[in-house]
Amino acid sequence: MSVKRTKEPNLSAADIERLKALAAMPDSEIDYSDIPATDEAFWADAVVIRHGPKEQISIRLDADLLEWFRKRGRYQTEINSVLRTFMDHHR
């Protein structure tokens, strides 16, 4: 399956250069000092939730709503998550 973006993000030249610099940075130079360490106790209650396969559909959404989700990144995943939360709340 091929992936095609429908709209390129509006990045400035400075943003593009910063992203290139970050991509080239070795992991050893990443500053993790503001991230707390985790241990097995932290993950003891973690649960992986997998839902069944997704089904491709066509849906009409308000343009401003879709644009808002697209700006956030993985918009289809987020829309799915919002709908699942709504469904779970109304069960």
Task: Give a concise summary.
With 91 residues, the protein is mainly α. The protein has helices at 13-24, 40-43, 63-71, 75-89. It has a domain at 59-91.
Structure description:
The protein has a domain of 33 residues. The chain is mainly α and 91 residues long. The model has no long low-confidence stretch (mean pLDDT 88). It is 44% helix and 0% strand.
- What share of residues are in beta strands? under 5%
> Number of helical segments?
4
Question: What is the SS-derived class?
Answer: mainly alpha
How many β-strands, per DSSP?
A: 0
How far apart the termini lie comes to 34 Å
Multimeric status of the protein: single chain
> How would you sum up the global shape?
flat
Helix content: 40-55%
Q: SSE order in H/E notation?
A: HHHH
Salient structural properties:
4 helices; mainly alpha; 91 residues
Show the helix and strand layout.
Layout: H1 13-24, H2 40-43, H3 63-71, H4 75-89
Helix pairs in contact: 3-4
